Structure formats: C-alpha cells, structure tokens
C-alpha cells in the first residue's frame, strides 16, 4: 500500500499543537493507523483519530451491517443493512478531515502482510483468538497493538506497545520547581523553603540551580530523588563530597525518558495488571477480566453470542466462569447477570 507523505498545517492544528506540543503533533501527522472492526467502538475510534489529524487512517471489517449496529454505529442506516460495515462508513469518515489520508481495506481476514504497512493496529469487535494472532504479528514486526470492545455498560482496553517503549512524558503536566531552605550534604536530605509542598514523587529527577556553598550541585545532570515527606526529599550521597551548603537554591523537576516493557495479550490474559479505580470494589477488575474471557469462550464454543435475558445462557456463562476461576475468586451472580441482560443494549450513550 502506497501512502503519501502528509504535510503539517500549523494553522489548522494550532490549538491542538499548543496543547500537545509540536513534536507530538508531528508524530501524529506521520503515523499510519489501522482500525479493524467498524462497529460502535471502532467507528468512534476512527472518527476521533481522523479529527485529531493522524496522517494515515485505514479501516477494515469483515462483518456486515446488522440491525444491532443501528443503535450505536452512527454512520450506517437501514439502507446499509447487509453491506460491509467499513465500506458503508468510509465515505462519511473520509469527509471529516481532508488533510488525513483515509483508505478502506478489502473485507478479507487480516493477514500479517496487512499490518506491516502500519505503525499501530487497533482491533475491536473481534474474538480473543483473532486478537492473539494479530498481537503476535504486531509484536513480531515491531508494530503497536491496541484492542478494545464494549458490551452495554461493560468495556475493556488492552495495549501492547512492545519492549523498551520510550515514554518521554508520563503525565503531560508542567515540571514542578521549588525554592530550597536547606540541604544536608551528609544525609542528602533537601528541605523546601517555609515547608512548601514540593509535589515530587519517588523516582522523579531534579536539577539544582542558585545553590550557594554546595555549588557543585548546580552543575549536575538530573538527579533521581526519594520522597521523605511533603516538604523533604533525598538525593542520596551525591552531595556528600561537595562544599558545605550555605543558602538558597532551587530544585526543578526534569522529565527523563522512561523505557517500559509491555506484556503480550497472551501474557496479560494469564497474569493481568489492572488499574484499580474503585477501592470499595477491589475485586471488580478481576471479575470483569474473567467475565470477558468467559464470554469469548462461550462465543467460540457455541458459535454465537449469549441470548439476552436467557436464564439458560446465563447459567452456561456462569458455569464457564466457574470452570475458568482457578484462583478461587468470589464471583456473585450479580456480577454477570447484568452483563448478559445489557449485552445487546448498545445504544451510543452506553456503549461509546
């Protein structure tokens, strides 16, 4: 697939550039992204990426428009039922931003050769087997992989950006700077002026300036710190051989590139890491993880989705969950009964 080089219109993306930075915007304009699965989730992702100005966006789907799609996939109508979902949505997506090169792949199953043309592959509305296969291809060819789906109020997202992925800015926040009151060169403890809260975290890096006495600190590369309390942090033994501290000084946070190793989808299914947002429901992410695996197992075994509000299918889904629950996790029926009852209720206000 031949893709032309996209130019960067600073007037068109000026506000976005100020928010994200010129470097990030330039990377977006150079990026080539494939979205496979243009149901409600895939369409929303495609729309947002095109509006954001991604350089090249390709969509793909092997499924056709069904009645269920009409409740959430807002670019198809009754006249599109039976048509390929990607092809039915393509013209409307293409109209969103004429500075983005948009293409629509043929409705064949994705192959390893297909993903070699892209920097990032996003998969939605696909079986676990398909996701595992595509993630394997992406990892093998040094590509980034994201998978996501939603069923009613229940959703998930998985990210695999490979090994040694470089993060230049973890949070996008402005670097913090504090005025210093004292530095204990012997212990490495650094105190802020007037007990001002520094806002630093363990592992942050700082550079020093305007330090009188222990002026050697002013010339150091970014120093990793350990937080002792809200007003004090420690820099280790790096100041031990410097001149005695006299007065003054500033410490400013510096964001140092961080390299992260991502797990593959297969590894994450066996040993998942969760972001816990509700500590009153600490087991909820584990339950949802097991629930999604059970749902995909059900669909693979019976070649269909569970019927909505079917007591029999709810029991089948529950039995699959229990069989997969090797860790003895407490799974009350209320954790999967609503999932089944809402599974097909995918109006856009819930699903997207």
From TrEMBL:
* UniProt key word Isomerase: no
Q: Which UniProt keywords apply?
A: Ligase, Nucleus, Ubl conjugation pathway
Pathway field? Protein modification; protein ubiquitination; Protein modification; protein sumoylation
Q: Which SUPFAM superfamilies match?
A: Activating enzymes of the ubiquitin-like proteins (SSF69572)
Chaperone listed as a keyword = no
What is the residue range of the signal peptide feature?
Answer: none
Q: Could you tell me which Pfam families the record lists for this protein?
A: E1_4HB, E1_FCCH, ThiF
What are the recorded Gene Ontology BP terms?
protein sumoylation
Instruction: Name the Gene3D superfamilies for this protein.
Output: Ubiquitin-activating enzyme E1, FCCH domain (2.40.30.180), Ubiquitin-activating enzyme E1, inactive adenylation domain, subdomain 1 (3.50.50.80), Ubiquitin-activating enzyme E1, inactive adenylation domain, subdomain 2 (3.40.50.12550)
Where in or outside the cell?
Answer: Nucleus
Assembly, in brief, is: Heterodimer of SAE1 and UBA2/SAE2. The heterodimer corresponds to the two domains that are encoded on a single polypeptide chain in ubiquitin-activating enzyme E1. Interacts with UBE2I.
Q: What is this protein called?
A: SUMO-activating enzyme subunit 1
